[in-house]
Design a protein that fits this description.
The protein is elongated. Helix content is about 10%, strand content about 25%. The protein has one domain. By secondary structure, the protein is an alpha+beta fold. The protein has 1 helix and 5 strands; from the N terminus they run βαββββ. The structure holds zinc ion. The site of zinc ion (ZN) has 7 residues, from helix 1. Zinc ion (ZN) binds next to helix 1.
């Protein structure tokens, strides 16, 4: 059985990927998250999207398997959240 999560609403060529990273590599004070960087912020949001089926508890404390999620995208096609 596959454990791969089905993700709806993925943007293939998101706008945020075209915004260059403005961090100074190796310099913490000039890198995200100390310094605001749209590219790194969106990238971090992107990496927080789950890729495998996961289990949550419903209001009756029963395990519910989540097999599909739908992304909520921001104005730069960045992932600002997801629903299931
Ligand atoms: Zn950056």
């Amino acid at each position: 059985m596959s454990t791969k999560l089905i993700i709806n609403n993925i943007v293939k060529d998101p706008k945020w990927k075209k915004i260059p990273c403005s961090c100074k590599k190796g310099v913490i004070m000039e890198s995200y998250p100390v310094k605001p960087c749209i590219h790194c912020k969106c990238n971090q949001q992107n990496e927080s999207i789950p890729s495998k089926i996961f289990i949550i508890k419903d209001k009756n404390n029963k395990d519910v398997e989540i097999k599909t999620i739908t992304l909520v995208n921001g104005s730069l096609d960045d992932c600002i959240g997801w629903n299931f």
